[in-house]
Design brief:
single chain; mainly alpha; 2 domains; 71% helix
Length: 326
């Protein structure tokens, strides 16, 4: 009885600590470790064929090169956050019932097949995403569905790190969308502007002209916003549906914030001057837009977190009370 009380008190004092009676299962942990090591060897020695001329076959070495690009230079932080979330939930993971599910073997097989496709098609991004599928499938096979659900968010968030570089294909559509939306906003405040492809020009003659270049496409904002939205939704919202909605909303929020940046560039260029807009304000606006994006994200999260059903019921009750008083 005293031991049970002591364990309960310890759990209350440190809810994320491992249960007092927890003991690693050497067989299960050994199988999992062996599977991970085998997968690492596969992805290291036969990870990619896209740089065969350089003699580098590791898909991880290929991905490390992607961190050299400005849009994805901080993607490695996503892996650290995913590991932190898994460590933070270590007690919940340790307490999940063990019930091996061999459908995990199918997940591993499908992930390895995706890697073969990526290897043969010289598409390393597919192989990188498949690494998460292999790890998660092993968890499902060795420990079962409850444990797999407990690590689903860290696994999905880690995959976001690998999916980010795939967004580079969206650069041109994002540029076209940003220039069109910015022109519509400029026209809304009485500034004559037109979009010719990715170039925004003033229709007033000697007005502003600037091109929405790759760096201003909003891709970086999109990558950062989705990377921030996922953990913010996970830690602040209580409903799984609301978490997914906030993550989905982060995509148009990033696009709108980038269009607002181009819009304000046009306003400054029209009202103050082109030189100020493209020099001082151009660099400063990046920080302004990032702050605006965070405000929009937190505001959307606060709206989603409201119990609208209870508020609606309270509103109906107030109307009934007012009607009864009359």
């Amino acid at each position: 009885m005293n031991a049970a009380k002591t364990e309960t008190a310890a759990a209350a004092a440190n809810p994320r600590a491992l249960p007092a009676g927890f003991r690693p299962d050497p067989v299960r942990h050994g199988i999992f470790a062996a599977g991970i090591l085998a997968a690492l060897a596969l992805y290291f020695f036969y990870g990619t064929d896209s740089e065969a001329a350089d003699g580098r076959a590791s898909v991880f070495a290929w991905f490390a090169k992607q961190w050299g690009y400005d849009d994805f230079g901080n993607n490695w932080i996503i892996l650290i956050v995913a590991a932190f979330v898994a460590w933070r939930n270590r007690r919940r993971i340790a307490e999940t019932p063990v019930a091996p599910d061999w459908s995990g073997a199918l997940v591993v097989a499908a992930s390895l097949f995706a890697h073969v496709v990526g290897y043969r098609a010289q598409m390393p991004r597919i192989s990188l995403c498949s690494t998460v599928g292999v790890a998660w499938g092993l968890v499902l096979a060795v420990w079962g569905r409850a444990t797999a659900r407990a690590v689903l968010f860290p696994a999905a968030y880690a995959m976001l790190c690998f999916v980010g570089p795939m967004m580079v294909e969206l650069t041109m559509p994002l540029r076209l969308m940003a220039s069109s939306l910015a022109c519509a906003l400029l026209q809304g405040v009485g500034i004559a502007a037109a979009a010719h492809g990715t170039v925004v020009v003033s229709a007033a003659g000697d007005g502003f002209t600037f091109d929405v270049a790759d760096a201003c496409s909003g891709l970086r904002s999109l990558v950062v916003m989705t990377a921030l939205a996922a953990p913010y939704a996970y830690f602040t919202l209580r409903s799984q549906l609301k978490r997914v909605l906030l993550f989905v909303f982060s995509i148009p929020l990033a696009m709108v914030a980038n269009a607002l940046r181009i819009f304000t560039l046009g306003v400054v260029a029209e009202w103050i001057g082109m030189s100020l807009a493209m020099q001082l304000y151009h660099d400063l606006s990046g920080y302004i837009v990032f702050f605006l994006s965070l405000v929009l994200l937190m505001g959307t999260g606060a709206i989603l977190d409201q119990d609208w059903g209870a508020k609606l019921c309270a509103l109906k009750q107030n109307k009934r009370r007012r009607a009864s008083r009359r």
